Amino acid sequence: MWNFYRAVNGDIPPQLPSAEEYPVRGIDISYYQGEIDWEELAAHEHVSFAFIKATEGSKHQDERFTENWNNARSAGVYVGAYHFVSFETSGDTQADNFISLVPKQANSLPPVLDLELYNEEVMANPPSKAEVHEILDAMIEKLEAYYGVKPIIYTSSNLYMKYLLGSYTEHDLWMSNTSCEPLANWTFWQYSFEGMLPGFSMDNIPVDLNVYNGSEKDFYKEFGLSPDFAVYKKENV
Predict the structure, then answer these.
(1) CB of 198 within 8 A of CB of 40?
(2) Which of 109, 112, 118, 197 has its CA 20 to 30 A from that of 153?
């Protein structure tokens, strides 16, 4: 616990996850990373999986989502799509936006709900816990009914304590903490915003780095994935 606070306060260097302890490693991306050579990227040890931005709020759709989703799957990268949660519109319409874009395909990771305070106005006047839960509950119900799996929730340690502690315990957590391993019971850990990997057309554009909390066997089993890429690439629901 003491090392956690020292790391968060910058008293000790950021903790990096061991490749031996966490062999399943991945990235998360959006249109911001530009055009991606997924075949080249897939050959890198850091890219077993990728979470790809799909939607935001009730209307916005990432312009490169379909390209990234299809090309990543073709390269044998296990993919999941994430939705950036807005506090301005209902969970129902946000779920509809996601469902309209993200295909229901076998060998995919569950949908992700990205929970952040995203601008100065929201930070100055954050929504209540009840307001956040109303949006999340509606989205979770609709996405789980459509995709047949429980969505993952992405957030930071602070927002976990504010909005999620003691709730949504059946959902996997994807925790963001660039200082040290999160204290929450995490399934994915986003540990860096500064990864520099091959395959990106835009120079000096960093990518977020993540690890899965378990072995390769655990990863395949938990999400019902086929380790056979020949099967993985062609299977559809």
Answers:
(1) yes
(2) 197
